[in-house]
Design goal:
With 265 residues, the protein is of the alpha/beta class. The chain has helices at 13-20, 24-37, 53-65, 79-88, 102-115, 133-149, 172-186, 206-220, 232-244, 252-259, and strands at 2-9, 41-45, 72-75, 94-99, 118-122, 157-160, 191-192, 224-227. The protein folds into three domains: 1-91; 122-225, Dihydropteroate synthase-like (TIM Barrel, Alpha-Beta Barrel), CATH 3.20.20; 231-265, no CATH class. It has an eight-stranded parallel beta sheet with strand order 7-6-5-4-3-2-1-8, covered by helices on one side.
Length: 265
């Protein structure tokens, strides 16, 4: 399971305040805590700082990679901000994100090509977000085809079928799970990811929903997620689910996690 730590995001008030104050220590402590929890990437997002986003995203990228030896998920819809961050990024980054919306695709694809990064592809086009499995699968098919045509290896493609909150429509959870299963059935080598906590938006005790949803999505074929890695129970469920799904040979990862105290929630 490829995990992306979500916490360095200016939509969270303490992070927005730390970015505004250039509080390097706060940001770096958050980066180190997530890295210690066992993620593969750290998401960096300063989208609320619209006026100076390129400068601030490059700054975030630099200070985070000063203290963690992890690639970053560079998170912005602004091509200028993405390019600024990728110029200072060490190693192979994950770009978040591209879609089939004509303007967005044409703006983002040159950046993907120039910097050789992996990319999260949102399963949506100019019609908007998909309401059902059929539309999402059509977008997934087109994204894979168009990205490969531009030279992107299939293993560098992360498809995001777009989680929508079940507080607004009780069917959105099952639609997502069915879509993940359909994508996995069609594409064995692409990655499938999502912003996990979107499922619980607007509801109480969100961690319970996020944790249950993660296990269900993994069973449907999802192999990546943007998560809060400081949720110890959620992280323990990742190890448990991988063992049950046959993704952890002889349960070695699960046993190691137990020895390291990572299964204690």
């Amino acid at each position: 399971m490829i995990l992306i730590g979500e916490l360095i995001n200016s939509s969270r008030k303490p992070v927005a305040e730390a970015i505004a104050a250039q509080d390097v220590g706060f940001i770096q402590d958050l980066a180190k805590a997530q890295a210690a929890a066992g993620v593969d990437y750290l998401d960096v997002n300063c989208g609320t700082h619209i006026a100076d986003e390129p400068k601030m995203l490059a700054w975030l990228t630099r200070i985070v990679q000063e203290v963690v030896d992890l690639p970053l998920c560079i998170d912005s819809p602004n091509p200028e901000a993405l390019a600024a961050a990728l110029q200072v990024h060490r190693g192979k980054a994950l770009l978040n994100s591209i879609s089939l919306e004509k303007q967005r695709f044409e703006q983002m694809i040159p950046i993907v090509s120039e910097y050789g990064c992996s990319v999260i592809g949102l399963c949506m086009d100019d019609r908007g977000m998909p309401e059902d499995e059929t539309m999402a699968l059509e977008c997934a098919q087109m994204l894979v085809e168009r990205l490969q045509q531009r030279g992107l290896p299939v293993e560098d493609i992360y498809l995001d079928p777009l989680v929508r909150p079940i507080s607004t429509n009780s069917k959105y959870g099952t639609v997502f799970l069915q879509t993940v299963a359909a994508i996995r059935n069609r594409f064995s080598k692409v990655h499938i990811t999502c912003g996990l906590s979107n499922i619980s938006y607007g509801l109480p005790n969100r961690k319970h929903l996020n944790q249950a949803f993660l296990v269900m999505a993994m069973a449907s074929g999802m192999d990546s997620a943007i998560v809060d890695p400081l949720d110890r129970k959620l992280m323990a469920l990742v190890y448990a689910a991988e063992a049950i799904l046959g993704k952890d040979e002889y349960c070695a990862g699960y046993i190691s996690a137990q020895r390291e105290g990572k299964l204690d929630s």
